Hints:
Strand order of the largest sheet of chain A: 8-7-9-12-11-10
Low-confidence stretches of chain A: none
Number of strands of chain A: 12
Helix content of chain A: 25-40%
Order of helices and strands of chain A: HEEEEHEHEHEHHEEHEHEEH
CATH superfamily of the largest domain in chain A: Dihydrodipicolinate Reductase, domain 2
Largest sheet of chain A: 6 strands, mixed
Largest interface: A-B, 56 and 57 residues
Strand content of chain A: 15-25%
Distance between the termini of chain A: 17 Å
CATH topology of the largest domain in chain A: Dihydrodipicolinate Reductase, domain 2
Shape of chain A: globular
Oligomer: homodimer
Structural class of chain A: alpha/beta
CATH architecture of the largest domain in chain A: 2-Layer Sandwich
Mean pLDDT of chain A: 97
Number of helices of chain A: 9
Amino acid sequence: MLHVIERRNFPASSVKLLASARSAGKTFKFRRQELAVHTLGVNSFEDIDLAFFSAGAAISLEYAPIAVQSGAIVIDNSSAHRMQAEVPLVVPEINGGDVAAHRGIIANPNCTTAIALMALYPLHRKFRVTRIFAASYQAVSGAGALAMEELRQQSKSMISGRAIEREVFPHQIAFNVIPQVDSFLDSGYTKEELKLQNEARRIMHLPSFKASVTCVRVPVFRAHCVAVNAEFQERVTLAEARQAISSFRGIELRDDPTDSIYPMPVNYAGEDVCAVGRLRIDSALENGLAFWVCGDQLLKGAALNAVQIAELL
Amino acid sequence: MLHVIERRNFPASSVKLLASARSAGKTFKFRRQELAVHTLGVNSFEDIDLAFFSAGAAISLEYAPIAVQSGAIVIDNSSAHRMQAEVPLVVPEINGGDVAAHRGIIANPNCTTAIALMALYPLHRKFRVTRIFAASYQAVSGAGALAMEELRQQSKSMISGRAIEREVFPHQIAFNVIPQVDSFLDSGYTKEELKLQNEARRIMHLPSFKASVTCVRVPVFRAHCVAVNAEFQERVTLAEARQAISSFRGIELRDDPTDSIYPMPVNYAGEDVCAVGRLRIDSALENGLAFWVCGDQLLKGAALNAVQIAELL
């Protein structure tokens, strides 16, 4: 988030870093200065105009109202406020206008949701989406820095024939795939899988939208991919679909199968822009498109989107 | 294939290994003997009752008719004969009876197809499938031994910060996913993606079956996974679906989300049995089930299925 604020020249006259007592005193480089981390407390938000929260739902639930009371606007990266009717849930390219209705808190969507919608929304604008079937290929960075280290260490151990150690993920992630991201609901879907449907409904203003999703963790460091089959109300053509994607800000077409060109994590890790490839008329839907979307979940799926919301404000 | 023949005590009085001149003279251990590889030629099939072909479509097209003429029955692992009406395409648990109609050649299905159908067919028998949406997570072993070595070498290089080398796959496979398996058709689907629909039609005797698939290579050494959304004609219940899977030979339920139990490549590499998990009522289909299936594509997806066909004969 600091990198994004700096890189985009966000007009912050000063920046204050807050974390738990455990991290207090650590420093981070920002605009060629060393910023020290302060301990989060009830008085932390005096004189703060904008507060970016990215410390999990429990911290957001406790401290976002305190920050708002102190006069700050909160942009919350956690899932804590995303489904609250009075909290706008915003992807700036899609529903930036919703920001205006905020009452102090604005929610940043789930990473897979944000990335999938960057491809789906321009197609929806053109053809009116009704439902999607999707399967994700999610990088370990979505689970944090320790998860990235776990993939590195496990891969090293496997290659050297040593036993692997496991802490972050419920199973080995190196040279494996895990069909679970977040915890399970009674329906058999995970919370992560349901987020794509429920958050998409709010972001696209489409309460009847349906999504049946399988979220899978793959041994990739950074950047998520999603394979999507989307059904629309109106007749689709490839030319119009390509045009709809190409003319939308924040997403690009990378789609030339004959030369094996399509988006992959190696291309989009570290990139602001998301990308669509494998765009084709769906063979099992009446008015359907199948496509593959890829984006860096630390950027469009998290920090970039949050800073874009701040820019709107 | 040799391992499977030996392990299952297939009643072969003798086994002859055939390959290109390049491999002639190499030896393989079989039943505690060393078997030498002979060079494939037009006279190779004299006194051979059963010939397993696994050397690509071109070799199968040229030599399978020669083997048949010499009196052998050919079990072909390549895609060469799979769509020929007079050639049975067989998964023994599903359409073993089709073997009887052979005229010398029997085809072994595509690996992803065989594994996906082991889960889909018992559900189809109960509920009548109409179409599926699927996304695959395919191990590198499907592309051969060199592909496995490429994943190992690239992973090693990446972890040590060295440049990677690439030969088998069109892009880096270590810590990446590649949304392409096999070559592209005009429709935008790959051949691999279309196989699942077309081969499933023949194996399930269901010419109207539709499948819209995205096939993706993932950095896993062995065992494929497929995320499936399946639509049925009849009303589905979870209890009946679980019962249908449990009572079918060759597939098992591994499905206890509350304890993070579901099939993964680490569990099923080297296993004859395939497995289904993440079974749930599909949230975006009228009569639908979503599930996750996993199986070793060198076994059920190739050698095991071929030897099972031989056992039927």
